[in-house]
Amino acid sequence: MSRIVLGVAGGIAAYKACELLRRLLGAGHDVTVVPTESALNFVGASTWAALSGKPVHTQVWDDVESVPHVKLGQQADLVMVAPATADLLARAATGRADDLLTNVLLTARAPVVFAPAMHTEMWTHPATQANVALLRQRGNVVVDPDSGRLTGADSGPGRLPEAAELFAIATAVLDDPSTAVRAAARDMAGLTVAVSAGGTREHLDPVRFLGNASSGLMGWALARAAVLRGARVRLLAANVAMPAPAATEVEQVISTADLGQAMGIAAKDSDIVVMAAALADFTPAQSSETKIKKRGGSGLTVDLVQTTDVLAGLAAARTDPAQVLVGFAAETPTAEHSLVELGTAKLHRKGCDLLVVNDVSGGNVFGRPDNEITLLDGDRVVGPLAGTKDSLAHAVWDAALDLRSRR
Ligand code: CTP
């Protein structure tokens, strides 16, 4: 259980903070909502009080005997402001203390995450961008807004990410506070990365397929981590049910062949490519365009042919020697072959630069929020590292950046 202050500034996206609040409370956190006065024009104090089970104040003059403007900030494990308006970012950047929320921001010593939401013109305005840069320079996390439909008919960057995504970011920062340090440092700014996620499906007919149990959680965590650190992220999603992490460019793919084609294009101008998707190694030799019917009791034999190895193909076609190619491998070590031996052999076979190896002999890792990985680059072995997929995602990017710097 962590103590969280959820700041809400006066934007239409304030309604999404209700859902975020419910998720944070559902995870067992102690959440105090601190709206700005103008936020109450969008969602009233009684809604916040009813949802959080706590009184709601916007000014430092309420409950003065308990000095809440100092206590709330000092005791918080995380302060998250969602939505953060242009005005709130400006007040935070200049160190104003003209309401309870800005006082909390000045007294907080825990990670502070701003999730801006506003019209595109306000977001891209040099004044807002300068405020964002200053806040990041001071160690705050400023989440890039999503692109899409804004209030009215407008569309563009400025949307508040969905509550599920904000919850994932809050959880990542609480579980591993170094996430906030990396996000504020923006050490992947200027880099373009491509990440494949999920599991491919090979269709036998329009309704049936051969697939696998990959949830896409690891690929999602990699995309989320890279966006937080400032990279441009292309996410090739193979049959993942979750909404995509905010501010990523998503392309949906189904089969290994689709993924190979899309990744071939994306990889051409990517600085780092991560193949986190679980790809089908076999596909039906023939797939029927119409539904395969039962045949009066007789069985069905399906011939399978091997798919192309996408990662090995990317390694062979690589033209940029500085590009870092990262593969994933789930292995079951034996008495004869250790995890590192199996991984190193695969690293060389595929021709990639870094292999993230998972020991799956203990059971299934699919769909779980945490994992244990070992990183191999042919020279070094890092790990095993245990943690949430979000925190391991940062370790994978750290290793990829380290490889780039050694080239
Ligand atoms: N991969 C790929 N193309 C395939 C199969 C796998 O690019 N047709 C990628 C995966 O995305 C992963 C890496 O290769 O990053 C290793 O996947 P894995 O299934 O362990 O490799 P295989 O070559 O299938 O090895 P094995 O013989 O152990 O199944």
Q: What's the number of structural domains?
A: 2
Structural class: alpha/beta
Bound heterogens, unique: cytidine-5'-triphosphate
CATH class of the largest domain: Alpha Beta
Oligomeric state of the chains in view: single chain
> Main β-sheet: number of strands, strand sense, barrel status?
8 strands, mixed
CATH topology of the largest domain: Rossmann fold
Determine the fraction of residues in helical runs and give it as a percent range.
Answer: 25-40%
What key phrases describe this protein's structure?
single chain, 407 residues, alpha/beta, Rossmann fold, eight-stranded mixed β-sheet, five-stranded parallel β-sheet, binds cytidine-5'-triphosphate
Descriptive report:
- The protein has 407 residues and is α/β, with parallel strands linked by helices.
- It folds into two domains: 3-184, 3-Layer(aba) Sandwich (Rossmann fold); 187-405, Rossmann fold, CATH 3.40.50.10300.
- It has 14 helices and 19 strands.
- It has helices spanning 14-26, 45-52, 68-75, 86-93, 100-107, 120-124, 126-137, 163-175, 178-185, 217-228, 256-268, 310-317, 339-350, 389-405; strands at 3-8, 30-35, 78-84, 112-116, 141-142, 146-149, 155-159, 192-198, 202-203, 209-210, 232-238, 249-253, 272-275, 282-284, 304-306, 324-331, 354-359, 370-376, 381-388.
- The strands form five sheets. It has an eight-stranded mixed β-sheet with strand order 12-11-8-13-16-17-18-19, with helices on both faces. A five-stranded parallel β-sheet has the order 2-1-3-4-5, sandwiched between helices.
- The site of cytidine-5'-triphosphate (CTP) has 14 residues, from helix 12 and strand 16.
